[in-house]
Amino acid sequence: MDLHLNNKVIVISGGAKGIGAAIAKSVAAEGALPVIISRDENDNKKLVAEIEEQGLKAGYVTAELSNPDSCKDAIDNILIKYKVIDGLVNNAGANDGIGLENGNYEGFIASLHKNVVHYYLLAQHALPALKESKGSIVNIGSKTAETGQGGTSGYAAANGARNALTREWAVELLPYSIRVNAVIVAEAWTPLYQSWISTFNNAEEKLKSITDKIPLEKRMTKVEEIADMVAFLLSDRSSHTTGQLIHVDGGYVHLDRAL
What burial class does residue 97 get, using C-beta atoms within 10 Å of its C-beta: 0-12 exposed, 13-18 middle, 19+ buried? Predict the structure, then answer.
């Protein structure tokens, strides 16, 4: 299926590794120009080089998105160079373990800045360009907003906000034909996830105990499976889909635990 993304400029936050990198590769394969925003210059260059080696296009901006001023600078720099923004993928963030019992105000607020404030700021700064292009926004979310996890109040609250903002923006941006959707992730094999699993003495057992609870095929979701859904939602092939929270999770969140 041709997704009609050829030459579209797609901004992807947290785009240098994991899910973001998979999204960048997926849209590049469809002929789009992914522009990744990430804090690590070397990671950014490495991914762009990898994409370009395949004869495809990519760009990057290095920015620390927990700094509000950097969000505006990143979008401004992208518009100076590329003139347009056809799609925005809000993806950057990390499960940082800021809990209720053992957390504090400073850690909680920092977690919100790390995980959701920049979703709002990037969308706000990109909005004039998205209005011109009638572009699309895709927010990446986590099951923690719906299932809870324990010991991660900041991240769970941020993901609840991501879900709410998806629906809120879908309503607010209807007059501009800007579609806003979210892809909700449960258990996906990313570098961050791998690092977390490796902290357990019985890492293989721990991983099996998780995958055994994933209804479809008892396996982790591949980042490519998430990326391909994002590419579809960015494209005009999903032209009447907005305000949706789409779970690419092998049925983890909604199917009966008895399975």
Answer: middle
